[in-house]
Amino acid sequence: MNIGITCYPTYGGSGVVATELGKSLAERGHKVHFITYALPMRLTGIGNLESEYIDNIFYHEVEMSTYPLFEFPLYSMALTSKMVEVSRFEKLDIIHAHYAIPHATSAVLAKQILNDGVKIITTLHGTDITLVGLEPSFEPLMKFSIESSDGVTAVSKYLRDETIENYAVEKEIEVIPNFIDTEVFRPVDSRNLKRLLAPNGEKLLIHISNFREVKRVKDAIKAFKIILDQGIKAKFLLVGDGPDRGECQVLARDLGIWQQTRFLGKQSELTSILSASDIFLIPSGNESFGLSALEAMACGVPVLSSDVGGLPEVNVDGETGFIVPVGDVEAIAARMIDMLRDKKLHAKMSRAALARATQEFAKERIVPMYEAAYERALG
C-alpha cells in the first residue's frame, strides 16, 4: 500500500506512535509518506544515519506562507493542500490522520478535493477528544471529521467510550492500543549509568513527560520528599520539558530535595535510563493510554500510576505495579515505599511488567491490526 501519515512531529505520545507505525509499515514493504510541518523526532530512517536508512519512507514538509492579510497562519489549509499534492503525485491509497483536529479535518477536505478513491483513517489519541474537541466551537467539526472518515481507531477502550459518549457518534471505533518496538525498548545493562546517577547505591525513580499541568509532576515530587523523609535513599530523574518544568524545579528547591533530583531535559535515548531505574511514576490527571509507562514496562520497570483514563488498561494494579487515586500524594509515597523495601515484590512486578509489555503490546502484534483497518477501508 501507499500510505500518507500526518501527525504532530513533537515530543509526545501521538507523534511517537505515528512515527513508529510508519517505520514498521515501511519495514513490512509499504510505501510511507510523512506529511507534517517538521521532521518527526523519531524519524531517523530517511538518511540521518546510513545504518537506519529505509528507502520507502518519504517526508513532505507542509510549508507555511505569510501574508499581511491573514492575522493567523492557515495551517489546516496548507496541510490540506499538501495532502492533495502528495496524494496526486504519489497515488496514495490511505491518508492516516493522527488527531482528529486539525489532521482528520484536513484529510477529509483533501479527499473531497481529490475525489479519486483515497481513503481516510483517523486515530484518536486523547487530547484531541478530551480537551480540544469539547470546546463548543470545535464540537461540530470534531463529530464531522470522525464520521466522515473511512475508518476510526482509538488507542484505548477508555478513549473510544469517551468519544462515543461526548459526541454521540454512530461511527464504529476500533480499539488499537499503542505499541512498542521490543528490540529498542528492552532491559539493557545499565550498571555503569546507575553508578553515575546513584553513586551511593540510591534507588532511582523516573518520570518522563512534556511537563504539562495534566501530568501532575508536582505530586510525584511531593511524594518523593515523603519517601526521603522515611529514610529511603533515592534519586529522582525527571526527563522531558514543558511549561511546568520551571515550577517543578522551584518546588524541588523549596522542599530541600534539589540535590536528590535530576532534571535531564529531553532525551532521545531512553532505554538505558529506564533500565537503570527502579520505579516509573506517572501520576497524571488524565491519560488516554500512557505510552511512556508501556516503554518503562518493556524495560522491566514497575509502574506507579494514577487510576484514570487508559492507564489501568496498561498497568495492572498489584501485578505490573500499583495504581493510586489521582492527587493522593500519601498513597503514591506509600506504594513506592512498598516496592522499594520489598525486594521480592519489586522483582516480581518487574518480571510481570516486562512480560505484559512484550506479550500484549509488541509491534508485531499491533501493526497488523492497522494493516487490517486499511484493508477494510479499501474494501
Secondary structure elements and pairings:
Elements: E1 2-6, H1 13-27, E2 31-36, E3 57-61, H2 75-90, E4 94-98, H3 100-114, E5 119-124, H4 127-132, H5 139-147, E6 151-154, H6 157-167, E7 173-175, H7 191-197, E8 203-208, H8 217-229, E9 234-239, H9 245-254, E10 261-265, H10 271-275, E11 279-282, H11 291-298, E12 303-306, H12 311-314, E13 321-324, H13 329-341, H14 343-360, H15 363-378
Parallel strand pairs: 1-2, 1-4, 2-3, 4-5, 5-6, 6-7, 8-9, 8-11, 9-10, 11-12, 12-13
Helix pairs in contact: 2-3, 3-5, 8-9, 8-13, 11-14
Helical fraction equals 40-55%
Beta-strand percentage range = 15-25%
- Care to count the β-strands? 13
Envelope shape: elongated
CATH level-two architecture of the largest domain: 3-Layer(aba) Sandwich
Q: Unreliable stretches, pLDDT < 50, 5 or more residues?
A: 45-51
Spatial order of the strands forming the largest sheet: 3-2-1-4-5-6-7
Broad CATH class of the largest domain: Alpha Beta
> What is the H/E string?
EHEEHEHEHHEHEHEHEHEHEHEHEHHH
- Class from helix and strand fractions: alpha/beta
The end-to-end span amounts to: 13 Å
Number of domains: 2
**What does the largest sheet look like?**
7 strands, parallel
CATH superfamily of the largest domain: Glycogen Phosphorylase B
Average of the residue pLDDT scores: 91
**CATH fold-level assignment of the largest domain:** Rossmann fold
Number of helical runs? 15
Classify the oligomer.
single chain
Cα gyration radius (Å): 21 Å
